[in-house]
Amino acid sequence: MTTTERIDHLDSRLGPDPKTPPTSHCVFLTGVTGFVGGTILSCLSKAHPNVRVKALIRQEGDAKELQSVYSNLTPIIGDLSSLSLLTSTAAEADFVIHMGGDNVPAVCAMIDGLASRTTTGSPLPRLISLTGPRSLIDLSNPITGNLRASSRPWSDVTDGHAILALPKDRMHAGADQTIIAHSVAKGVGTILVSPGQLWGRGKGHLKKESNAAFYYTTVKSRGRAFVIGDGTATWSWTSIGDLGDAVVFLMEQALMSGSERRGRVGVNQDGYYFVRTGDLSMMERAKAVSERLGLGVVESIPVGTAKEIHPFGPIMWGCGERTRADKLAKLGWRPKETDWRVLMEGEGGERA
């Protein structure tokens, strides 16, 4: 099926009544003023310009700015603490994409809204919530900056259930588990999308860059690129554009998998999805920055020094986990932007 055919097919299937025109179908988004959310809004609007978008936006000025760019957008003025507003808006939506962080009460409120339109049988996918792979970091192990000999890549096919049973005190883990439990209780199908490190310039209208410039800034102030330990700690990565494409792709697959195709897109306990293009060690990143800035040999610093630079420095520069996006691969999705150095340096960027 070509991209055009896929879009036309989706537009004919969005919503409970396949005979209704595309303009009647609605996707509710949160986080659209941010780096990730803005990119996903852009990717969704480009792929499906006839889909009505409702977007939670805090500031009137941002709402007007986005409306000037996206004619299909209706702003919902409020924030993630506006729980009754989240519930009522989600109740009117065919699909919800949450990109506002680990805000459990907000996500559960939207699940409550979606539950008012649930169907009989096993839950159909109705919600995508963005999470992250830092739940994989076991901080009971000392941070060394080195790739542990015992480490292995995590697959969302073979390790998905284990990921959703990790200790709740880890970053993302408690939120992920509570969201899935609430989804199961309410009969709503939820998909958790977990990208690795994000590279590239954002596709959204308001925020084009993430906080990836902090390493460059620190290197310039120190005069040398640096790693912790031997710098072999490795994270999986994807581009911000490919993340946006993957989220839209998953929404398409979810909405095309009606009652006759239940189970094609896993949800809830089977709904954890990595998005991954490749793997990159901290040393590879540091060498690229050093070469670009003409700074010479990369310096190895102890964990304590990293913590002095930034409270989360040891985690940012000394940890790493590798992932495998096997579920998306099985559905037929592939990343398009595969050159990490172009993504790091493109359009004048200083991303590391």
UniProtKB/TrEMBL annotation:
| GO CC entries | cytoplasm
What GO molecular functions are on record for this protein?
aldehyde dehydrogenase (NAD+) activity
Q: What residue range is the signal peptide?
A: none
Q: Which Gene3D superfamilies match?
A: NAD(P)-binding Rossmann-like Domain (3.40.50.720)
Q: Which SUPFAM superfamilies match?
A: NAD(P)-binding Rossmann-fold domains
* UniProt-listed InterPro entries: NAD(P)-bd_dom_sf, NAD(P)-dependent_oxidoreduct
Q: What is this protein called?
A: NAD(P)-binding protein
Q: What is the lineage of its organism?
A: Eukaryota, Fungi, Dikarya, Ascomycota, Pezizomycotina
